[in-house]
Design brief:
With 332 residues, this protein is mainly beta. It has 1 helix and 18 strands.
């Protein structure tokens, strides 16, 4: 849902349960946003018109070395009317997320986490069933001598219906910025893979579940989500001055498993795997212009063209897609 009337997005209470030297523990109760790491698994869904929040309890503990959060929450379901949003009683999320500086490298950090998800009713290409999934992950990121890097690995296990879950993902984002050069160009390359189901007739499930990822995961059009996919995403960013930034990118998509379908950003099945045997889903070229007018106002314009790949053509979707958006953000 991308439309909502007036509603309560965040309302929580903090209690400082401990404050001793460089250690602090805070308990937060109520409706709140949850964002961790690169927002691959838990995000506020920035990008769509309506952001995501959660009703729950979070315990935050910070020390000189580590920042650790433990939480239990239910996502808030967006409904189009006013003052009608409520918690999704079909879904429960819980987890433990810890992060710390990696002192052996300059400006580097490491994050370790466990996330649990229960859904009374989940749908994949294999079918519909009760999902109880656990995610173990690690992220390593930093900057050095013009380079920036962001690497993440996640393994998932649990149950789906009467079968077992075994899924995984590997994600990376590398870049180099030519500082001191005109426009300070940054060349980037993202390479990601998420597992797909090996056999839809088997009880076991290998489809990766990205839980609550950021909205425009592969760009503003948000056509494809990170489940049963492989993608290579080269990009070029230019700083044009006066708060204007230009981003150019081209993203290539394939299916990781030809026995599984393709999914949207909300892990919604877009096309079943039986529609065709090709891995090629398509590719997307995108141009985005961001203008930070001042500290309160930002204006963005985005154009993207999705070239339909062989798998979609075999399933009867042979038309390319054009996307254009212009929007402003006011912060106060």
């Amino acid at each position: 849902m991308d439309r909502d009337g007036a509603d309560l997005h965040q309302a929580f209470m903090d209690w400082n349960a401990l404050r001793s030297g460089r250690s602090q523990m805070t308990l937060r109760v109520g409706r709140q946003e949850l964002v961790y790491g690169s927002a691959r698994l838990i995000s506020n869904r920035d990008g769509p018109n309506v952001r995501l929040s959660f009703d729950g309890v979070k315990l935050m503990f910070g020390s000189r070395a580590w920042q650790t959060d433990a939480f239990v929450a239910r996502p808030v379901s967006t409904r189009p009317g006013a003052w009608d949003d409520g918690r999704d009683r079909n879904t429960l999320l819980w987890g433990l997320y810890a992060s710390a500086p990696f002192h052996r490298l300059q400006a580097a950090s490491i994050e370790l986490y466990y996330l649990g998800l229960h859904k009374d009713e989940a749908q994949f290409d294999q079918g519909i069933g009760e999902e109880h999934r656990h995610s173990l992950g690690a992220r390593f990121s930093g900057r050095a001598s013009g380079w920036d890097y962001n690497m993440e690995a996640i393994y998932q296990f649990g149950t789906f219906g009467s079968g077992r879950i075994h899924a995984w993902t590997l994600a990376s984002d590398w870049g180099f910025q030519f500082r001191g050069r005109k426009f300070e160009p940054r060349l980037g390359l993202k390479a990601n893979v998420t597992s797909g189901d090996r056999d839809p007739t088997s009880r076991d499930l290998q489809t990766f579940n990205p839980l609550f990822p950021r909205g425009g995961y592969f760009g503003e059009p948000a056509l494809i989500g990170p489940a049963n996919h492989i993608d290579l995403h080269p990009s070029l960013s230019l700083d044009l001055g006066a708060g204007v930034k230009l981003d150019l990118s081209w993203d290539y998509f394939w299916r990781e498993s030809v026995r599984d379908g393709i999914y949207g950003p909300a892990v919604n099945l877009l096309q079943p795997g039986a529609a065709g045997s090709s891995r090629n889903v398509g590719d997307q070229v995108e141009v985005k212009l961001d203008w930070a007018v001042n500290r309160n106002l930002a204006i963005s314009a985005d154009y993207a063209h999705f070239f339909t790949g062989k798998f979609l053509k075999l399933s009867g979707h042979d038309r390319d897609i054009d996307y254009l958006s212009v929007y402003g953000t006011l912060r106060f």
